[in-house]
């Protein structure tokens, strides 16, 4: 989905339901991911996104369509996160819940990273031997395109093409598995 353009933003400001839906769908996932990266709590991140979005709807007439809306919404989310942290600081039960979420999230992150690394190793193993060798020389041995070309007796363009294809294949497969 493309970033909402100025016309969509202007329609959102005027209260158009389709524009509101488009902006909501465009920003929901990245903003929630951003909030989760700070809060380590998906439910609270979702709550914060909804709170911010509702505030934006109620104050839409104050939005300047010529300003960077992405920066505006990120700033609003940061402010809401700071408010949440202030509430956590004052409420012992919220504080305990927050620390439990951080501990659980760090374990979950480690498991997820290990799974991604295993998948990455599997994908690299599935590359053709030539493509795999070029990728390993570039990434692990930190060799330049010219060094790889000289060592393998191939052209620099072949090195570039092999790297582009290898990285594109890996990126596509990793993206496919993350979206499942």
Automatic annotation (TrEMBL):
Any one GO molecular function term: DNA binding
One annotated GO biological process: DNA-templated transcription initiation
Domain of life: Bacteria
Keyword Transcription regulation: yes
Positions of the RNA polymerase sigma-70 region domain: 23-87
RNA polymerase sigma factor 70 region 4 type domain ranges (all copies): 118-168
Keywords associated with the record: Sigma factor, Transcription, Transcription regulation
A Pfam entry, by short name: Sigma70_r4_2
Family: Belongs to the sigma-70 factor family. ECF subfamily.
Cited NCBIfam families: sigma70-ECF
Protein name: RNA polymerase sigma-70 factor
Species this chain originates from: Echinicola strongylocentroti
């Amino acid at each position: 989905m493309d970033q909402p353009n100025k016309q969509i933003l202007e329609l959102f400001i005027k209260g158009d339901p389709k524009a509101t839906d488009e902006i909501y769908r465009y920003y929901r996932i990245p903003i929630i991911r951003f909030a989760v990266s700070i809060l380590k709590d998906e439910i609270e991140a979702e709550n914060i996104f909804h709170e911010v979005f509702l505030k934006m709807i109620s104050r839409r007439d104050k939005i300047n369509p010529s300003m960077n809306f992405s920066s505006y919404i990120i700033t609003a989310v940061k402010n809401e996160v700071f408010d949440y942290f202030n509430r956590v600081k004052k409420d012992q039960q919220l504080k305990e819940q927050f620390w439990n979420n951080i501990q659980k999230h760090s374990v979950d992150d480690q498991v997820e990273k290990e799974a991604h690394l295993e998948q990455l190793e599997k994908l690299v193993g599935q590359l053709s031997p030539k493509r795999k060798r070029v990728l390993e020389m570039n990434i692990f041995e930190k060799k330049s395109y010219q060094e790889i070309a000289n060592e393998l007796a191939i052209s620099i363009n072949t090195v570039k093409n092999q790297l582009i294809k290898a990285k594109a294949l890996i990126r596509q497969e990793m993206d496919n598995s993350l979206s499942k």
